[in-house]
Structures are given as C-alpha cells and as structure tokens.
Amino acid sequence: MTTNDIAAGAPRAGLRARVGAFGGFLTAMVIPNVGAFIAWGFLTALFIPTGWLSNADLASVVKPMITYMLPLLLAYTGGRLVHGQRGGVAGMLGTIGLIVGADIPMFLGAMVMGPLGAWLIKKIDRALEGKIKSGFEMVVNNFTLGFLGLGLITASYWGIGPIITAINQGMLRAIHVLVDTGVLPLLSLLNEPAKVLFLNNVIDQGLYYPLGLQDAAQAGKSIFFTVASNPGPGLGLLVAFWLFGHSKVIRNTTPGAIIIHFLGGIHEIYFPYVLMKPLTIIGMIAGGMAGIATFSAFDVGLVAGPSPGSIFSYLALTPPGNHLGIISGVLVAAVVSFLVTSLILKMTKKSDAVDEFGLQEFTDRSREMKAEGKAVLENALAGTPAAPEATSLDLVRKVVFACDAGMGSSVMGASSFKKKLTSSGREDVEVVHSAIESISEDADVVVVHKNLADRVRRARPNVRVVTINNYLGDPALDDLRAALTTSEVNNAG
User: Fold this and answer.
1) Are the C-beta atoms of 119 and 34 separated by less than 8 Å?
2) CA dist 66 to 48, 73, 164, 337, 472, Å?
3) Which residues of 173-192 are buried (b: 16+ CB within 10 A; e: fewer)?
4) Of 117, 187, 306, 429, most Cβ neighbours within 10 A?
5) Cα–Cα distance between 364 and 242 in angstroms, integer?
6) Rounded Cα–Cα distance for residues 213 and 105 (Å)
7) What is the distance between the alpha carbons of residues 415 and 409, in angstroms, rounded to a whole number?
8) Would the pTM count as exceeding 0.90?
9) Do 27 and 202 contact (CB within 8 A), yes or no?
10) Residue 434: which region, alpha, beta or left (left: phi > 0; alpha: psi -120 to 50)?
11) Residue 258's CB: how many other CB atoms inside 10 A?
12) What amino acid positions are annotated as catalytic residues?
C-alpha cells in the first residue's frame, strides 16, 4: 500500500470511498496490534491499585507499555505498510522523538509519524535507485536511514511534537466537554450512519481508540471505548427484523446474524438490514444514544478497545465495579433500538420489504441464469476491461473475501464459502480473507460488499470483483460457486 492509495485515488472515486480508504489504512495500523492493546487492558484491570488483583510490581509495567511500546508498535506497523521494513524503522525513529518530547501517550502522533517517516525514506530510496555504485549499497542504505532518522527525531521533538500535542489535547478537551455537559450521546448521530457506510473505522480507530487509551491510562477506564462499539443497538435491530420482518427470507437470516453480531462481535452483519430499510437508522441512533447515556449515568467504561465488539469482549474488558453499568448500557441500547425499529417496520408496506433488501432480485436473477444454463457472473462480476476471450475458471486459484479491516465479515464469508466450494469439488481454489488495502497481488477474484467496491478497484484495478449485499447467503455467492464449478466465465467490463 502506498500513500497515493490513501490520499489521491482514482479521479472517479467518490469522497466516501476515499475517506473509507483512509479509515482502512488507520485500521490496518491498529488491528494487527489489538492483541497488545488488550494485553495492556488486562494488565491494567488486574494489577493497578484499583484492579482485581492489585500488584505494585506488575502494575509498574503499565506505564512503559502505554508510553513506549504501544505507540511504537503503531508507528512501525504504519511505516511498514508504506515502505516495508525500512519504512517501519523510519516511522519508529520519528515517533520516539514525539514520545520523549511529550507528557501524554503519543498514539495520534504515532499514526502520523509512522507513515510520514516511511514516505520520506521511500522517496529517498527511489531518488537513489540505480545511482549507487556496486558494493556501496549497504553503506548508502544504512547511512541514508540513519541521517533521516536523526532529522526525524530532531524535528518531531522540537517541531512536530508540540503541534500534535496541542491538537491531541484540544480534541480531548472537546470530548470531555461533551461528557461534562451530558451531550455525549449526540455522537451517535455521527457514529451510527458512519457504521453502515463502512466509515466507522475512520472515527473509531482514528479518534476514539487513541483518546480512550489516554483516558484509560489516567483513570483506569474510558467511556470512549463504548461510544461506537456497543453491540446493543445492532442486537435490538436484528431482533426487530426477526419478529416483524415482512419477508420470510429476511426473518430466516436474522437468528444466525444475531449470534454472529452479539456473540461474535462482527457488526458488519447487520449493515445490510439498515441499508434495506434506511429509516431504521433512526432506531440505531436512538439505541446508541440511550446506551451512551446509560454508560455516562453509571460513570463506567472499558479498560481497552473491544475488538471485535462482542458482548464477551465487553465483559472481559470491564474493570471492577463497572459490570452493572456496562451490562445496563448494552441492554438499554438493545431495548430502545428494538422498540424504534419495530415501530418503523410495522409502519412500512409489506410489499417493499424484499425488493428493498435486494434478495428477491438476486434470487430471480440466479434462477434465470441457472435455467438458461449460463455459468457467468453478469452484474455481480465487475472489474477493469480484460482480454475479450473468456477466461477458464480452471485457472482461478485464489478468491479473496475483503472487508474494511479484514478481520470481521470477510473472515466469516471466506470460511463459509470455502466449505461450500470444497463440497462442490473445487478443493484447489484457495479462499482467504483480507483488508481491502492489503489484497494480495495473486488474487484472481475479490468478493466485497457493494459499498466497498470502489475501494477494491482502486487498490487492485486489474482484479475481478464480485459485489454482494451480504457475506452469508447472498445469491451472487451462489452464482460465483456455480461458475467456479463449471467451465468458464466471461470477463465483465
């Protein structure tokens, strides 16, 4: 992935796709390190003076981890995404100057300096490419990185650090004002629509997560970890569709979706339901606001970011004395979301249900294709123009299920599709999951939600893309499986 992928993109890409790509990059920095953040959260919950098993010796590890290790992990990961190992090292060098020169955990700074340092060494390496005499490559490579590192440390300590610190403190003060004035629930007006548009990671990973870690370092917990990850609103929405959905097809899909969302923590599973009935976003916002208000009333929080946003993650990361408030916030959010969504479903026309969801349209198209004996992916299969002749599906060796972070709905979809494909006799096809911006070069087909298709085409412009509404049970996936188990597929423009 390059910085061009983050900032510029194809001219035809919409603003949402560009913002989503930026959020995807932030996620790619954070997600590989979530285990370390959770380890720090457990350490904090257990061993600080107010923890479950207070221990001064082990508690002494808490501050060095959040001050040095966690920001440097983010910086290295961000730098490596831009320019491999050398980029990771350059990103860490720039970040250590920020850390030493500041008196707060430098998570936002790490997410800036990591990619920036990597971008600079990448430009230097490209400028010197082909100009180094044979035998001097190691000397030049090491000293260019060393001199750049010196410059980054100095610049970040004296110049960049104070600017990022001021921005960081300003954001923290602004959100604390929302908390103190009781209007923090209004954040749901931003959070819930952003979720269903796959922009939640821009807000969650870029703002709430780093600010929450700073808050938790001081107070041992933070409400910021709950404002966008509460599984309650999604639970209420899915239960409402289960009980009051006008289509049997929809009602049959919701029990599995409830388990995947609430227990598995994969929130993307309910996004198609909101997109089916856009008015139900009101229920999600109301549920989110009720949950945040409840958390605030009980003065509770989590010790680290719950990833995935499962009820199990919530309970595991709840500090002593906060369980009643956390459970209440989740349940209140679910009840409010359920009541509002149920009312909306009862007020809508039955005839609109399936058509809005798109299930009937895809089902009819699937049946027509099978009846006509066409093993092709017409509207579902999209990509850049390729050779005019058909491509044998015997040559397809890798199918990638992609989502924003590569750790949620794509995992679920890939696992399910692999089992179906194997049972159909195509054991030779590798089915994997990936973040959009990390799709491998050897991918033959990429499966992605239709709202994320533009980002896939920007990240991998020459790959074929199958767009779906649902990672489980979408008719387009049946079409793909049927096509892969027959002879050939036509290239789609």
Assistant:
1) no
2) 14, 10, 17, 36, 38
3) eebeebeeeeebbebbebbb
4) 117
5) 23
6) 8
7) 10
8) no
9) no
10) beta
11) 20
12) 403
How far apart, in whole angstroms, are the C-alpha atoms of residue 242 and residue 237? 9
> Quick check: 114 pLDDT over 90?
yes
* Region of residue 326 (left: phi > 0; alpha: psi -120 to 50; beta: else): alpha
CA distances from 89 to 26, 122, 148, 250 (A): 18, 12, 11, 50
Instruction: Give the whole-angstrom CA distance, residue 347 versus residue 342.
Output: 9
Q: What is the pLDDT of residues 371-418, one digit of tens each?
A: 433 333 333 334 434 333 334 555 778 999 988 766 667 877 888 888
CB 431 within 8 A of CB 448: no
285-335: per-residue pLDDT in tens? 999 999 999 999 999 999 988 877 889 999 999 999 999 999 999 999 999
Q: Strand locations in 404-482, DSSP E?
A: 430-435, 445-449, 464-468
Whether 323 and 298 have beta carbons less than 8 Å apart is answered as no
**Per-residue pLDDT reduced to its tens digit, 415-449:** 888 888 888 888 888 999 888 877 888 888 999 88
**d(C-alpha 413, C-alpha 432), whole Å:** 9
Tokens of 211: 């600010």
The per-residue pLDDT of the chain, averaged, comes to: 81
Both tokens of 401, joined, read 């299920």
Residue by residue, DSSP assigns 166-186 as HHHHHHHHHHHHHHHHT-GGG
Q: Taken in order 214, 218, 221, 226, is the CA torsion positive or negative?
A: negative
Backbone angles phi, psi at 300, to 5 degrees: -120, 170
Of 53, 52, 48, the C-alpha closest to 65 is: 48
